[in-house]
Amino acid sequence: MREHPTARTATDRTRGTSFDGNELVIGYPSTDEPVIDDESVAVPPGEVTALVGPNGSGKSTLLKGLATQLDIDAGTVLLDGQDVAEMGTKQLAQNLGLLSQENIVPNGFTVEDLVYHGRYPHRGFFESVTDEDETAVEDALSLAGVTHLRDRDLGSLSGGQKQLVWIAMVLAQETNVLLLDEPTTFLDLQHQLRVMEVVETLRSERDITVVLVLHDISQAARHADHMVALRDGSIFARGPPGEIVTEDLLAEVFQIEATVSCANGSPQITPLRPIDGGMATDPDDGTEREEPPADASTA
Ligand SMILES: Nc1ncnc2c1ncn2[C@@H]1O[C@H](COP(=O)(O)OP(=O)(O)OP(=O)(O)O)[C@@H](O)[C@H]1O
């Protein structure tokens, strides 16, 4: 396999870039109360951290605050010890990549155009494409598995194809810290696995520090080194999946009754029923009956 331009060798291998949010207060102009109120996250350098929690628990808000996409009301975000608030836009973009949930597809852009756009932090305004840009773009297209789509107009792609192309763009940025908000959205199972393999490659071969929001806690438990579980804007638990994914956590945070066993070194979750309901109306006679177990293979 071709050596990635930023890949570290065994001898100069470090543990990746540190990325910490300290005493963060993050909210929206339209709301009186902050969503995240005085929370700290220390992301282990060179590892994969998953933010998990139910809908509306604050995962995206926290990620956007860490990515400086939302103004933080208080607290600091430190990248390799440096306050991101003191970094210029270009310096920040050279160090921190974000795959957001809200991506606007530019008119008339091909896939290749968009992926080249990921190189903007590394280029001057009037500078032409360098060999390094070309290598990074080819690498990103290939890693995301979208090389065959390179000449397609972005507007002509399916939701899943677009998602992979946005991932390719953020990979082309070649940052040491990568924040991914629900990178597996819109993707079928094969492509979800591909994305998680890409994340694994970034971690194991390139020492990239990855923070990702995942809805599927089973997927998070399988692929993350570290998990941060949010409930109502507060961090309820943090640590390695094997330590924090428990039946109690699933009940307290996700409001589901589930069993947790260990398979291949990671927690295996079998969801049984929602805790705050669990009753459904029988279509035959209108009486309430216990909800049958949800699909037992995923959470
Ligand atoms: N633009 C906004 N303006 C005001 N409130 C917002 C805005 N975006 C999110 N919120 C609120 O902030 C809280 C946290 O939302 P957030 O999107 O961070 O949660 P989440 O855990 O990522 O949810 P989901 O899993 O549904 O994507 C919710 O109460 C939500 O209504």
Automatic annotation (TrEMBL):
Gene Ontology MF: a single term: ATP binding
Compartments where located: Cell membrane
Segments of this protein annotated with the region Disordered: 1-21, 265-299
Compositionally skewed regions (Basic and acidic residues) per UniProt: 1-15
Main localization (coarse): membrane
GO biological process, one term: monoatomic ion transport
Superkingdom of the organism of origin: Archaea
GO CC terms, sorted: plasma membrane
Topology in membrane: Peripheral membrane protein
EC annotation from Swiss-Prot or TrEMBL: 7.6.2.8
Subunit structure: The complex is composed of two ATP-binding proteins (BtuD), two transmembrane proteins (BtuC) and a solute-binding protein (BtuF).
Protein name, per record: Cobalamin import ATP-binding protein BtuD
